Amino acid sequence: MDSLIIASNLTFAYGSKNILEDLSLEISKGSFVSIIGPNGSGKSTLLKNITAEITPQKGAVLLDDQDIFKIKKKDLAKTIAVVPQDTGGDFAFSVMETVLMGRMPHQKRFEGDSEKDVEIAQWAMELTNVWHLKDRSVNELSGGERQRVIVARALTQEPKVLLLDEPTSHLDIQHQYELLELLDRLNKTKSLTVIAVLHDLNLAAQFSHKIILLDKGRIVAYGSPVEVLTAQKIRDSYHIEVAITTNEITGRFNIIPLSKKKDRSEAARDVRIHLLCGGGSGVYLMEQLVQAGYQVSCGVLNIGDSDWKKAKELGIAVSEEAPFSPISAEAFNMNEELLNEADLIIVLSVPFGYGNIVNLEQVSVALHLKNKKVMIVETESEQWDYTGDFTGGKADSLLAGMMQHGAEKFGSIRELLGRIGGK
Ligand SMILES: Nc1ncnc2c1ncn2[C@@H]1O[C@H](COP(=O)(O)OP(=O)(O)OP(=O)(O)O)[C@@H](O)[C@H]1O
Asked: Which residues form the ABC transporter domain (predicted)?
């Protein structure tokens, strides 16, 4: 590994309270590393130690093999730029003047801004989408605009490594992505090493090569997103349950916080919901219902189907069958059990053929004989090519029969969630 930063055995205390405990790490040149961890775990303190803003009581930090605390501040600023957490304070300067301050490490004393300095400042302001604000006073900007100006100032330093402390905290979702995509681009095209404290684990997962998970001043995990962002590690550090699922389209994984059992809505906690879905029609609803605290089951689903995969990821009980096989007695019986246990059955827009009509018949029996509550969602989703009934009218007549016996119909999953109190 071609290391840019090596921290060894760092111990840092504020007063008598140790914040970092014998912490060691290496960050390689050209990498994109995120630092995550719960509030107060020491992320900002670590960042300040490895940028020589504060000095540890014990341990050492090397930047390119040099003791960082011995490098002159001006020289250090040619290599390292920092976007601090708090970009507040009084900036009685214009945006242009503020961004040009980033050139100071490269300028001689009393030397004004050269044409090149202005060009670099413009380049950084265009990248961060603040060029149009160049003549405004920084004091008049919104939090998000100001944050982008500070990033522009840091880029104007032309650093080899950019350290950012929660750079997305003031940004709306569009600007969060724009900023991280910009950092990703600079990382790839200019070999800029990026070290960012991020609170959003999904953003960290999406953009980082490596993630450092800090807890109580110690590194509890350091590795690729897949190695660090496991449900177990997140539970241990953040004391929260999460489901980790894979996005079918992007291939990236999503971390979905699940409310703690005790925090779940009283109403949702003990309600069992069974879904008749398939082909991805149930993915979104499953996530929403699990997140809202419902106990969810589904079936019968073909093994390998996207709904089946999502159910497995979320740990949902599922009655399953091999693809292209008729529903076996075993799958039928398990589905019946799940239906019997359910307080509510939801039928989603699934094309019915002779292979899966049994599912609908089972729901119909549960409604007619067991008085189960049934909700039917009939949508033509963009993701799902709803083609309806391939059973010569049998599916339609079962659905119509259920409607006559009290099943409720909804035009969309959102409408249904509005009724049952999902998210
Ligand atoms: N200047 C300071 N003086 C005394 N204690 C401090 C100071 N700065 C931070 N601390 C304490 O050090 C601990 C770690 O703080 P730090 O800001 O590094 O955590 P963090 O992981 O970045 O937290 P957050 O996610 O809330 O930003 C906290 O308990 C904090 O109260």
From this structure: 5-241
